[in-house]
Design a protein that fits this description.
305 residues; 2 domains; two-stranded antiparallel sheet; 8 strands; binds zinc ion; DUF4145; DUF4145 domain-containing protein
């Protein structure tokens, strides 16, 4: 299973093979072009940063702030300082109203973080909106106002956070069908426009299929539906059934995101990213793990890689 050499751009694969690229997906061998056994610690899995899920939800004041993986070095994590709240003149005016209640409070905020890796120290800025509502931390409130808490919703992070660990090598990215660009776009608009992010993930599959030799267009130069392209790719190898199902689910999320009245959330997009992550894991990482196990079994003991 996986991509055979003839399904990928030959020029790209030659470059990849000649230079022995090593990235988060492993080497070209793990890409299943030249099956070989590799030490497992060379396999860096594409994983979805759990902090992204925290950032996709409202954060109650006093809760631990998420520590996402650094968008620059990808090694350190970003520690945020407490948010700075801003409010409008209208908000200050509203407090004078007779019927004023704490849950009228709302505004914008900014919080600044820095990567903990000493050699990086990338500054990351998050911004969004805050509102006041009943707190969820429990306990017995000492006053009426004590029942309320501030909730922050992040709308933008800069530099954009990465949805998955990306290869930083253009040749490998090209071999994967340009998914790196699509993932970067999805990460950049994740909190601002989740529908757009889901559409970007769908685009990753379109690009992947094009690079795998599955034509985008019919003989009459019309665009082919993604479903049909996926079926063609699936039928080339029985092992692709489950993988194609994962990609199909990402397609459906992308279709929903494309609609103007889409109610897709950042959490939905992260679910799509998880499915895509699993699809590529099965394609590029699992075969190498299986090969390593087979080598150990054949040797009936440890293997020197
Ligand atoms: Zn960093």
């Amino acid at each position: 299973m996986g991509c055979s050499a003839d399904e990928l751009n030959p020029r790209t694969m030659r470059r990849v093979r000649d230079r022995g690229y090593r990235n988060h997906l492993g080497t070209v061998s793990e890409l299943n072009i030249q099956p070989a056994v590799r030490p497992l610690d060379n396999l860096r899995l594409m994983t979805i940063d759990p902090a992204l899920r925290q950032l996709a939800s409202e954060i109650e004041d006093g809760a631990a702030l998420p520590s996402p993986r650094c968008p620059d070095c990808g090694v350190g994590t970003v520690s945020f300082a407490a948010p700075t709240k801003f409010e409008t003149a209208g908000m200050r005016e509203a407090r004078k109203h007779d019927a004023y209640d704490p849950d009228w409070e709302k505004g914008t905020f900014v919080m600044q973080g820095v990567c903990g890796a000493h050699t990086c120290q990338q500054v990351v800025v998050a911004t969004g909106t805050w509102r006041v509502d009943y707190g969820t931390t429990g306990g017995y409130p000492e006053s009426y106002a004590d029942q309320f808490a501030v909730f922050y919703r992040v709308r933008q992070v800069h530099p954009p956070l990465r949805l998955m660990e990306l290869p930083d090598d253009a040749a490998v990215n090209e071999a994967l069908g340009g998914i790196a660009e699509g993932l970067l776009t999805a990460g950049a608009v994740l909190f601002t426009a989740p529908g757009l992010a889901a559409t970007s993930l769908r685009g990753c599959i379109e690009r992947f299929l094009s690079n795998a030799g599955i034509s985008r267009k019919t003989a009459k130069d019309r665009f082919r539906p993604l479903d049909r392209r996926l079926v063609e790719w699936r039928e080339k190898d029985a092992d692709r059934d489950g993988i194609a199902d994962l990609m199909l689910a990402v397609k459906w999320l992308g279709n929903t995101g494309t609609h103007e009245d889409s109610v897709l959330t950042a959490a939905d997009v992260l679910e799509g990213a998880r499915l895509l992550d699993e699809a590529f894991h099965r394609l590029y990482v699992s075969p190498a793990i299986t090969a390593a196990a087979a080598a150990i079994n054949a040797a009936e003991g440890p293997v020197t890689f």
